[in-house]
From TrEMBL:
Residue span, Leucine-binding protein domain: 50-141
Family classification: Belongs to the leucine-binding protein family.
Alphabetic keyword roster: Signal
Name of the protein in its database record: Leucine-binding protein domain-containing protein
Top-level taxon of the source organism: Bacteria
InterPro entries: Leu-bd, Peripla_BP_I
UniProt key word Signal: yes
Signal peptide residues on this chain, from the entry's feature table: 1-20
Organism: Cryobacterium psychrophilum
Length: 238
């Protein structure tokens, strides 16, 4: 005769199986899929931001080219006076965009520039980006508001004269100044002076909610963890 404890155990097992068969399937929890984040650009810089310029240093627009050289030099000096970029001063390498462009491109490539600023008064041709590669290309004509280079104020004109006492024109100087500042800020926000990082950084420093209008103001905002929109001499580009 079976023992009562064994019968009870068998009965419990049968009841459990029956009840399980009558119930619906156990729902499987849904696992949320994480949204993919953009892949960060791998750093390729060497810690020294080198900016090449291609301005008309001869011919009909030589005066504007000289103004753009002066504007970029003013920016570089202001950056250096406040500690530089990634602890180093910005290095500018100026080349003439008139006549032998191929030689100018080759010279900038030999100097391992990270970015190239193109003339404010002439739209960059589509093939220029490939010509200056692996450097990133910033056409200063993209910074021109209203179709013509900015007429600079007296204060900035004085700063330009300190950089080049013989300056006879200021056309393009403000755009060149802003181009250097924006490039330096791009290196800071990405922590890298490589070309790919600068291209990403140029976008980032123009779309944040915290508006800043000078190098010092923008650097302070970045140190406070703010996302900036640099509005320099040429104003908003967003």
């Amino acid at each position: 005769m079976p023992r009562p404890t064994l019968c009870a155990a068998l009965l419990a097992a049968v009841l459990a199986t029956t009840l399980a068969g009558c119930s619906g399937p156990v729902p499987v929890p849904t696992v949320a899929t994480a949204t993919a984040t953009p892949t960060a650009v791998s750093p390729t810089g060497d810690g020294l931001l080198r900016i090449g310029t291609l301005f008309p240093l001869s011919g009909d627009h030589a005066a504007s080219g000289a103004a753009q050289v002066a504007g970029s030099e003013v920016a570089a000096r202001e950056i250096a006076a406040r500690g530089g970029v990634l602890g180093q001063p910005v290095q500018l390498i100026h080349r003439n965009s008139v006549r032998d462009e191929a030689a100018a491109f080759a010279s900038l490539t030999d100097r391992a520039v990270d970015a190239v600023l193109w003339d404010a008064q002439t739209a960059a041709r589509p093939e220029l980006a490939a010509s200056v590669a692996p450097a990133a290309l910033l056409s200063l004509s993209d910074l021109v508001n209203g179709g013509t280079p900015l007429a600079v104020g007296e204060d900035f004109a004085t700063r330009l004269k300190l950089a080049d006492p013989g300056l006879s024109d200021t056309a393009g100087a403000a755009e060149a100044y802003d181009g250097v500042i924006a490039t330096a800020l791009a290196a800071i926000v990405t922590g890298d002076d490589g070309a790919a990082s600068l291209e990403t950084g140029w976008v980032r420093v123009r779309q944040g909610p915290a508006v800043c209008t000078s190098w010092g103001e923008c650097v302070l905002a970045l140190q406070e963890g703010l996302q900036i929109e640099y509005q320099g001499l040429t104003g908003s580009q967003s």
